[in-house]
Amino acid sequence: MSGNIVSVTDPNPRAGAILTVDLGAVVANWTQLRDRVAPAECSAVVKADAYGLGVPRIVPALAAAGCRTFVVAQLEEALAVRRALEPVAPDAQIFSLGGLPAGCAGDFLANRILPVLNHLGEIAAWRDVAASRGEVLPAVIHIDTGMNRLGLGPDELDALAAHPEWLEGIDVRYWMTHLACADEFDQPMTAEQRDRFRAALARLPKAKASFANSSGIFHGKDHHFDLARPGCALYGVNPTPHLANPMRDTVRLDARLLQVRHCAPPMTVGYGAAHRLTGPARIATIGVGYADGYMRSLGGKGHIIVDGVAAPIVGRISMDLITIDVTGLPESAAQPGRLVELIGPHRPVDQVAAEGGTIGYEILTSLGRRYHRIYLGG
Ligand SMILES: *Cc1c(COP(=O)(O)O)cnc(C)c1O
Questions:
Q1: Which residues pair with residue 339 across a beta bridge?
Q2: How far is the CA of 363 from the centre of ligand 1 (A)?
Q3: Among residues 47, 174, 235, 361, which one is catalytic?
Q4: Which of 115, 193, 269, 284 to pair with 56, CA 20 to 30 A apart?
């Protein structure tokens, strides 16, 4: 589903580009996933500044829609999410996936952040904090079922199952695990991880369980457990790459056309003279570059939409500039000062990513700091 973000008129002539974030679309995406996983709960993964869209706007919008669990990667991010939640949903819970950094227990407690304990050392450390305070302290515990990045490995799981007293003083709110291949729907690994997770849960003290990321949700009910953790799908990345995107687009990026020039062979365009003209051409230059997160790997590969038509990027992408070939367009369509579409209804995030040899996640989380940002709805 695309085309839901209306085109942009130029709100800030000082900025090279305008980034429009549709908060209504983000909320609609969360609501769709919430309904899909019900009666399980649906959290929102808002790490990396809500996948580049901006925690201060995304988090309150989702909280107002009823989201009560937020997931980040680092404690510093968790503190920013807590600040964003304070006026809207002070009761909401926040998971910090990156474990329990040394010396930070007080920050977790003072700000009511749940540490995700990833190994036995962190479990022991949290148990010690609980003992020293004479309190029972909440936490999430991560079981590794095949990713081999974070979480208790098989030996640690055996040890913990044999020593439930190691959890003394810890209120395990959730056992969680994370999927390695959820977006590959013909892969057996997701079902294998589900079975390993179930087997682990059967050996551990009873608590709620959290399993699915965005794509995991689309593997069906037996993958939902008690709490789903979607990230990318909230922001419009397709969680089912083999099917049409069930999510709404959430961002649109329009940049200013700075100059249009007539060129002819044997001229070349840009750094490294990487584009060699083969005939007379009109080349248009746009005020966005890799410093804005528009990846250098899109040079000579990507397309930018001018007046609804895809114009090829030619030559290398510079720090602040992109050159496109507009020879095929009427002169009136490509004029200095016009806005052209880098991401939007004609060029969804996933398509930009595919042209640049990456994934939509990386395009979103790289979105630049120089853009003039507009938030719609919310
Ligand atoms: C990033 C992340 C998610 C969200 O994944 P998406 O594929 O963006 O939905 C969920 N759980 C964990 C542990 C993560 O690191």
A1: 256
A2: 16
A3: 47
A4: 115
Helix (H, G, I), strand (E, B) or coil at 27: helix
For ligand 1, atom 4: residue with the closest CA: 231
Q: Residue 261 carries which side chain, given as an amino acid letter?
A: R
Nearest to 175 by CA among 125, 225, 130, 214: 225
3-state secondary structure of 312: strand
- 3-state SS, residue 260: strand
Q: How far apart are CA 209 and CA 228, in angstroms?
A: 9
Calpha distance 172→114 (Å, rounded): 10
- Residue 296 CA to ligand 1 center (angstroms) comes to 26
Token duo for residue 255: 């940049």
Ordered by where they begin, the domains of the chain are: 23-235 (3.20.20.10), 251-376 (2.40.37.10)
Give yes or no for a contact between 19 and 374, defined as CB atoms under 8 angstroms apart.
yes
Tokens of 263: 């060129």
* C-alpha closest to that of 212 among 198, 227, 232, 195: 227
Q: Are 172 and 95 in contact (CB under 8 A)?
A: no
CA of 11 to the centre of ligand 1 (A): 34
Q: Which whole-number Å values give the CA distances from 145 to 41, 178, 281, in the listed order?
A: 22, 7, 55
Q: What would you measure as the largest C-alpha separation in the chain, in angstroms?
A: 79
Residue 247, φ and ψ in degrees, nearest 5: -100, 160
CB 95 within 8 A of CB 69: yes
Beta pairing, strands 372-376 & 17-22: parallel
Active site residue: 235, 271, 290, 371, which one? Answer: 271
The tens place of each residue's pLDDT in the chain, 378 residues long, gives: 334 465 667 788 888 899 999 999 999 999 999 999 999 999 999 999 999 999 999 999 999 999 999 999 999 999 999 999 999 999 999 999 999 999 999 999 999 999 999 999 999 999 999 999 999 999 999 999 999 999 999 999 999 999 999 999 999 999 999 999 999 999 999 999 999 999 999 999 999 999 999 999 999 999 999 999 999 999 999 999 999 999 999 999 999 999 999 999 999 999 999 999 999 999 999 999 999 999 999 999 999 999 999 999 999 999 999 999 999 999 999 999 999 999 999 999 999 999 999 999 999 999 999 999 999 996
